[in-house]
Amino acid sequence: MHQKKSWDKFIAFGVIAALLCVFCGVPARAAEPAAPADRQMLAEYADYQERLQGIVTESGIEENGFTIIGGQVFPIETERFGSVRLVPAMEETYHRLALFLVREDGSVAWRTEQLAANSWNVGSMEQPITGLSAVAFQDLDRDGWTDIVLITDCRNRSGPYAGKSYKVGDVLFQSKEGFYRDYRISDKINRFGMNKSAECIITYVRDGRSTEFLYTASTKEELLRKGFVVEEEQDYSRQFEKLGYLEVMPGTYTMAEYATFMIYLVNEQGDIVWSFQPMGDFDNLYALKGIQCRDIDGDGMKDILVLARYSYAGSENELLTKSDYRIYYQRTGGFEADTEVRRKVACEEKDTVAELVEKARAYWGWSPET
Length: 370
What we know:
By secondary structure, this protein is an alpha+beta fold. Helices cover 24% and strands 36% of the residues. The chain contains 9 helices and 18 strands. The strands form 4 sheets. Strands 1, 2, 3, 4 and 5 form a 5-stranded antiparallel β-sheet that branches. Strand 4 and strand 5 (108-112) form a beta hairpin. The longest helix is centred in the first third of the chain and has 23 residues, at 2-24. The protein is elongated.
């Protein structure tokens, strides 16, 4: 209902503006007509909602342009509706996901499309959902009622991440009225990478463990206290021209068997002055191959290259591994992630960190003798 919320705000703003005009003696300006694209989207959304709300039986799901995701239909006990089946379905035109609770007689007891993935492409009817990878049932808020965990598979069709697959996690909490989402919880699940598996989401929501501190901690002591494990063999200090003498501290935090890999630069007082998350969209650190601090782009300042092997789930949820590297260039105010070399210099499985450093330096014009 993202568009409806935006429209309500527009109406509220118009009412307030009109009242101000009356009290201030300023003539009210006529509302600008909606752009053709906006009118089209509102019409599409109205049609979509009419089809969704018009579904009253399970057979009506596909009759109204939705495809049931057969492998993800499960029975569930609810407080309000009793024994029902959770039936997820994908809307065929806009690739939006809807959930239905269906009674034994086939009637629809409840429905929703208020899901994080359905508002991923802000201001667009078209969403990036390609499927539903996981459904789990747990009492997450410990009220005695079963809640629903969802993970959707997504892939952007355009933009800088076109063609790349990623996951969006969500939780629906059961109440006396049905189910509801807490958007703040969904936001943290996805913003801090806790959407890798249903187990990750359950560990966060039910047990209170979180990766958020990896991105918000200000001191080394805080990291260690909350469970960050330092990779001792790759932990060393270097003199950085603009930032001084710093400890280069790589390590991981493991949550539901997934290790999130981070690198921190820590000053002599124990304060974090910079941090990196080199693993990108991979699920888990499999092995850290090495970190080297050396001038790569020829500006006279030490840069950082990190090489690691990561694991991730394939299209059939099989475990795959891949080696990848990242470069961070030192700048006057900190570090800047490379966006050029990795597109041109491929990482081979046999490469070492020293070999990749030399390849990257060669890209910037360094001769082997330099």
